[in-house]
Design brief:
The protein contains 3 helices and 20 strands.
């Protein structure tokens, strides 16, 4: 869910779960109504590509790379306070996935919430971790919603912190959450909240064949194939977070578990720098933990410190896994109020077992490292200016010149220093 990456604080990421369409229990009936919202972000970016096979021949600077969405929020309230509604997210530019999300929900503030349709899984919506230094880039998604890099390639290195490999966000599924009021002896909005998701198949859109493989059978009708090569099936995600205040310190803790199957082996021929082949497997697992600590200095000023860790099996070989480590700190002069200035730094490290190249077993571990320093300025409510600098390094486990099944592998290592300046409007 790309919009999560641009929110002002890591705490907002977690509590923003219900921001758009939360149903507060009411005593009178409210008819169905539709509201429109969304965001648009534009950037100027520049980079010095060092030893990048994929980006070395491209321009070193450019405008655009817009990230924009329009939200259609549908909501009504029954006489007993139950809210029923829906949400449709339309991409603000022509893309392969033109409708980003589409789902219905039913919610009571004293019971909980259910979401059915195409939307992010519970772990992605409930995450807490390192504060993000540059909106749209950083530790939750190291490649950024308005991407600077495409160094990580294929099944070996794809996937960010919030999205487990086996729980494709926006795939058709169901999410269940305990009450937003949280209870457990705390004030509303604090305490413990639980979430669970079930995704029977990796399908997302009727026009897009699959979230995992564009060449497989369509997703229409609900009765999807059980033998699609490389596709995720029967993904279960369990998540929890706990939010509490202790004097001047706000504490947020997150944890999640994921379990999934892969329907059938991917088919791939040996190729130079070919992506890892995904093998059929049952019971692949993943774990994630994160925290954000906020120290309230006074007069709206805060210091946030956080980090997260994830490990997951990838299904590309025996005993293969991916590990992600993140850390960050951010200072805000006055929260999200106009005139507030933010300064942050973050770090991310991903290590992924190579497993295989196009189905042929190889050893070693791919590594992706990210550093960034960012500044933000809240021009007005809904208007955020931002900028920053950073560096990433990608090291392929397979050295250039290595012969795999008769095919010589190319140099896939990459390094870059980059800078970005942009503005985001939320409406």
């Amino acid at each position: 869910m790309k919009k999560l990456l641009l929110l002002q604080t890591a705490l907002v990421v977690g509590t923003g779960l219900f921001a758009a369409d939360i149903a507060v229990a009411q005593t009178k009936e409210v008819p169905i109504a539709v509201t429109v919202g969304g965001y648009i972000a534009e950037v100027f970016k520049a980079a010095d590509f060092d030893n990048s096979r994929t980006l070395g021949s491209r321009q070193s600077h450019g405008f655009g790379a817009a990230d924009a969405e329009i939200y259609f929020n549908v909501r009504g309230v029954l006489a007993d306070g139950t809210a029923i509604g829906a949400r449709i997210e339309l991409e603000g530019s022509t893309e392969g996935d033109q409708i980003d999300e589409r789902y219905m929900f039913i919610e009571r503030a004293d019971i909980g919430r259910a979401e059915i349709g195409s939307t992010d899984r519970a772990a992605s919506k409930m995450v807490y971790g390192a504060p993000i230094a540059i909106p749209g880039y950083g530790t939750i998604d190291p490649t950024g919603a308005i991407s600077v890099t495409n160094a990580p390639t294929g099944a070996r290195t794809s996937g960010n912190f919030t999205k487990f490999t086996g729980a494709p966000d926006d795939a058709e599924g169901i999410n269940l959450y305990t009450s937003a009021d949280r209870y457990f002896g705390s004030k509303a909005g604090k305490g413990l909240q639980l979430g669970v998701s079930y995704t029977p198949d990796g399908c997302q859109d009727f026009s897009v064949q699959s979230t995992d493989n564009a060449s497989i059978s369509p997703c229409g009708g609900g009765f999807t194939s059980k033998t699609d090569a490389g596709q995720i099936s029967r993904a279960y995600t369990f998540a929890a977070n706990y939010v509490e205040s202790f004097g001047m310190i706000d504490v947020a803790v997150f944890g999640a578990y994921n379990r999934f199957d892969i329907e059938a082996n991917s088919t791939a021929a040996a190729a130079a720098n070919g992506a890892a082949q995904v093998f059929k497997s049952n019971g692949l697992e993943g774990w994630a933990f994160g925290t954000t600590l906020t120290y309230n200095i006074g007069d709206g000023s805060t210091v946030q410190v956080g980090g997260a860790w994830k490990t997951e099996e990838m299904g590309v070989g025996s005993n293969d896994d991916r590990k992600v480590y993140t850390a960050g700190v951010r200072y805000l002069t006055n929260g999200v109020n106009p005139g507030s200035i933010g300064l942050g730094v973050d770090y991310a490290k991903t290590k992924a077992d190579q497993g295989n190249i196009s189905g042929f077993a190889v050893g070693g571990e791919d590594e992706f490292t990210w550093y960034s320093l960012g500044v933000t300025y809240q021009v007005a409510r809904g208007i955020l200016g931002f900028g920053g600098i950073g560096r990433y390094e990608y090291e392929d486990a397979i050295a250039a010149g290595t012969v795999v099944n008769g095919t010589t592998q190319l140099d896939n290592d990459a390094k870059a220093n980059f800078a970005v300046v942009g503005m985001r409007l939320d409406f």
